[in-house]
Recover the amino acids of this structure.
């Protein structure tokens, strides 16, 4: 069977790989990994005979030719991607040439870095009556943003924003959030290398301070920026509780045990 598996490696900690991803690594004959972000320790389960190659210095053509070559030989071939393959992973650019070459594709999802960052910081991205929406985005740098997706426009919803690939653009983030009526005191959390043992750093600041904090900590890559009205909720005195666990609320799996006045 000529097939290539695109596997989400998760944010860095190999234990955050899915069981399916781990099994496929064990079975793989050839693994091409995205070297700058995928932790090499994810490959510890690979067979001794498995060909393991870092794609860091490769062009798109070189990457797809490598995958096609091994797939045509009948090997079990994997493209190991950071986080989840569907987010900022050039997935379709790689899939199209494989489709043309008649190679079957399967994608295994992974824990994306936004989720790993929220977990590391013990933050929730949604809270009842605060925000029920999360936007995954990035700020315009060399990659232009499509119409309607400027950070100012997205931030005007005052929901949770998880910004990938934007840690060098904190000045712009501040300007656009201020333009969307966020205050200088809005809490911002930056997580560098979420889930990487001994390397993870969590910075908490505000729109006014976070750029300087990142500079002082020398964080200029591999970082997630979270802006949200939910941040810091762990320390709030009053919370609107979720209806799911509310004793007065009946749902499909549980009957209310108190009346609404109780
Ligand atoms: N597909 C990946 C994203 C690739 S784009 C995913 O789902 O996570 C690369 C960007 O992801 C980085 O610039 C950074 O913003 C973020 N990122 C990747 N790994 C990270 C980690 N361990 N901690 C924090 N941010 C990370």
């Amino acid at each position: 069977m000529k097939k290539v598996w695109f596997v989400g490696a998760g944010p860095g900690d190999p234990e955050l790989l899915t069981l399916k991803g781990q099994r496929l690594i064990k079975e793989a004959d050839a693994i091409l990994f995205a070297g700058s972000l995928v932790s090499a320790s994810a490959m510890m389960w690979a067979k001794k005979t498995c060909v393991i190659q870092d794609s860091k210095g490769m062009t798109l053509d070189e990457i797809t030719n490598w995958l096609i070559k091994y797939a045509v030989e009948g090997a079990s071939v994997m493209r190991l991607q950071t986080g989840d393959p569907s987010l900022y992973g050039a997935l379709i650019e790689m899939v199209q040439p494989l489709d043309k070459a008649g190679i079957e594709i399967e994608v295994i999802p992974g824990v994306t870095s936004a989720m790993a960052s929220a977990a590391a910081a013990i933050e929730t991205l949604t809270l009842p009556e605060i925000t029920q929406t999360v936007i995954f985005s990035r700020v315009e740098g060399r990659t232009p943003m499509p119409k309607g997706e400027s950070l100012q426009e997205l931030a005007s919803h005052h929901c949770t924003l998880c910004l990938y690939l934007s840690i060098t653009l904190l000045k712009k983030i501040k300007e656009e959030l201020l333009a969307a009526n966020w205050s200088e005191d809005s809490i911002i959390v930056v997580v560098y290398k979420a889930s990487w043992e001994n390397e993870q750093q969590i910075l908490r600041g505000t729109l006014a301070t976070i750029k300087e904090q990142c500079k002082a900590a020398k964080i200029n890559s591999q970082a997630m920026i979270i802006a949200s009205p939910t941040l810091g909720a762990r320390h709030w005195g009053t919370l609107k509780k979720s209806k799911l666990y509310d004793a007065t609320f009946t749902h499909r799996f549980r009957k209310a045990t108190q009346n609404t006045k109780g």
